[in-house]
Amino acid sequence: MNKKNNEFGYKILTNTGYKTFSGISFNGIQKVYKVTFDNGNSITATNDHELFVDWFISKPISKLKVGDEILGTDGFIKIVSIEEDGDTEVYDVLEVDGVNRFYANDTLVHNCKFIGKSGTLVDSATMRRLIEETRDKRYSFVVNEDIRFYKELDKHMKYLVAIDPSMGVSGDFAAIQVFEFPTFIQVAEWMSDNLNQNDQVEKLKDLIEWMYADLKAKGCRSPEIYWSLENNSVGEGFICSLREKSKNVGGLTPQDYIKRGVLITETGNKRMGFTTTKRTKTMACAQLKNALEHNRMIINSKEYVQQLSNFTLKEVNYSAIGPGLHDDLITASLTIMLMYVQCRNSLDLLSEVMDYKQQIEANDERVGLPFVYIKR
Hints:
Blueprint: E1 11-14, E2 17-20, E3 23-37, E4 42-46, E5 50-52, E6 58-60, E7 69-72, E8 75-94, E9 101-104, E10 107-110, E11 114-117, H1 124-134, E12 141-143, E13 147-149, E14 158-164, E15 174-181, E16 185-192, H2 197-217, E17 225-229, H3 234-248, E18 262-263, H4 278-293, H5 302-309, E19 311-314, E20 317-320, H6 328-343, H7 349-363
Parallel strand pairs: 14-17, 17-18
Antiparallel strand pairs: 1-2, 3-4, 3-8, 4-11, 5-6, 7-8, 9-10, 12-13, 13-16, 14-15, 15-16, 19-20
């Protein structure tokens, strides 16, 4: 991103609220230092980068020492270590509207020679590539009022659909991701904070039924659509709503209400969907990181990339760091990764994509790719 190229409408958090900025400028490869604080956060920057010791005075990292206190978003935080962190690409945040300071990983800094949030899931090179690749992309069409589709469905492909449920109150977003398999192209997404859990069930059902009908119309004899959800806390309400709707239509099992998709449930789990634990989230994050950094997933959504840029390690878990930031689109894709790992755990994704496409080109017929899923 250059000086005149902040086309996404991104804003940066300052001590006076969110502000616009003109862009980010590459400032060469320089030696950087990692400053770690007692709240578990850290920031990586050049030695002359200045942090604020109070509202009016800032000091470069070279003048700071362990035990000094720095201003963060929630008050003062104490430095617990300052370490060299090698050489890396350094960037300037340019022309922050009306101010010369902003928060980076919850730390108040000057807008110069900042390399980004320390601990983001994907590396800076991948982040830049994703920003560039989605810069000019727009959704192609909308289904059911607000589900954004970025490409047409392909009758030869399978589809993975995941929902991250929410309470449905203002500021608490539910999200859906749809990926094509085995190409791992992001096909569609949805996010909203104005639907209750009953309506979230209907949104997912309508989406899967539309996909099934569209694939049938395109000549696919047996559309394969697999779906799942995170069943932690809020997800239990979604499951209860689904169970009740199934009973109302005479269904024998809760998943009978969504008849056109196959529910994927974590092996050995008595509850529908996947339970996110420290272990499973770490595994899903590792799979997502690997797929993105090796260019084995195609992301089409600017909103997804924006959330990914704030998806940061705090203590032992990744999440959106900062007030007003969200990660629901990312967490929905983590469920996609859990589905993928369970169904194709030892698969080399890139080689499968190539082999599969070669078979399609050879005979233009469906090629069976076995899935392992829980029986109904």
